[in-house]
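Notes from hallway chat w/ T.B., transcribed later so I don't forget. T.B. wanted the structure written out for a chain they're using in a teaching module, and asked if we could keep both sequence and structure tokens in one place. Agreed to drop them here.
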Amino acid sequence: MKMKKGIKKLFKPFSIPIIDEKGFTIVEMGIVLAIIGIIIGGAILKGPALIASAKNKNLVNQYQTLTASIYGYQEKYGFFPGDDSAATTNLAGTGYTVTDGNGNGQIGVGAESFAANVHLVAAGLVKGSYNGTSDYIKHGYGGNVLINYQTLQLKTGNLIRFDSLSAENAKYIDSAIDDGVYNTGSCRASADYTAGTIITNLGCFF
């Protein structure tokens, strides 16, 4: 009723008899449909951006969860997962087939990196199913997530590495966790965050 009175007042100076008190007029229906179209159009345009934003936030959460799990494992067993030289003893009876690392404080690329996933699952710190030899953790965009020791942009250490991200998504994660610059700080990328490019590796050191 308020809408009808408003429209009637708007068109009164033009003496256009548009209001039928028994129902909506063509003008009213046109206005309603136009508003609905604007709302739907806006939702369609914002949809992909909202999905990307949610995935990026999940990646940040994934990094934080993995970091907490890694330090939780170290606190409990005295080693980083994958590098645990007593894993077969520490994780005995868990029902998982685990292998020992060398205990040097570095989660080596390859065997220890794959073992790290199994150690974390066996310890009950993360969920998933990994064979310890070829199964990767995955991130929201489908790329691999690795826990290992390596050098990236002149910084060396243990890191959580996200592979195959768009430059925009990689920069978002770097900014959320660190300084947003590809070659400084605790998060470093294989290349600069140039729009439209793919970042092969984004590693955040822990």
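Follow-up for T.B.: The mean pLDDT is 89. Might be a good example for the class.
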